[in-house]
Amino acid sequence: MLRTLPSKFLKLITISLIGIALTLTIGACEHLSQFLPVASPTATPTEPATVSPAAGSTFVELPALPYAYNALEPYIDAQTMEIHHSKHHAAYVNKLNEVIQQYPDLQTQTVVSLLQSLESLPEEIRSTVRNNGGGHLNHSMFWQIMAPNSGGTPSGELATALDQTFGSFDAFKQQFNQAGAGQFGSGWVWLAMNPQGQLQIVTTSNQDSPILENLYPILGNDVWEHAYYLQYQNRRPEYLDRWWNVVNWPEVERRFAQAQELQQQLAS
Ligand SMILES: [Fe+2]
User: Fold this and answer.
1) Which residue, 52, 134, 140, 252, has fewest beta-carbon neighbours within 10 Å?
2) Ligand 1 centre and the CA of 104: distance in Å?
3) 10 Å Cβ neighbour count for 178?
4) pLDDT per residue over 144-183, tens digit each?
């Protein structure tokens, strides 16, 4: 059903993203203009460095974390964060660069536009772009919607919308955790907005982004084992439950406002 939703919503997302990229004027980072402005890194002695893509491949770059690897402890351990960011996310970046390097015509596109037009890509690279472009997009958001000394509850219009949609913030968290725990195998659990402006909880497999289903991702948790296994082993529900302690609500609220803006443009 979701695939039948109007493509105008996606077009608006694309237009908005281009606008964000131009506003930020971040040069080589233009291709990172998915749904996120790049946050200013916090300088700390243990801050992870940006990992450069393979030589000659500059389509996308691995963004530096805006906090140290150990900043989310005790909820997410430093080793998990380091491997997750500098190995897993870096692998998505490098693989995407490797494949796009072979197709110069695609280098002017953004990751979002590639994902929105998968069917038009050469068949031999379609799944690679889907998996690694999605992996890059999803993780770029993931690092931003978490922060040390955060958690708590959302405020403003997002809090109201969650109450209206799910009954209460606690009920939302419970449904979100349930969906995340029930995702079979690797994937993500999301709070997303549909083109009608409604919030919904969805899951995606592998590294699929909600934008493949015309949904705007507002908040997402990574339920691949690489996100939690070192600390939580097979206890994914415990990871899901404790993860709320590191959610960066101001960033999530910003994404919600952005989604609302796009939806209102669609409705007007
Ligand atoms: Fe991940």
Assistant:
1) 52
2) 28
3) 13
4) 999 999 999 999 999 999 999 999 999 999 999 999 999 9
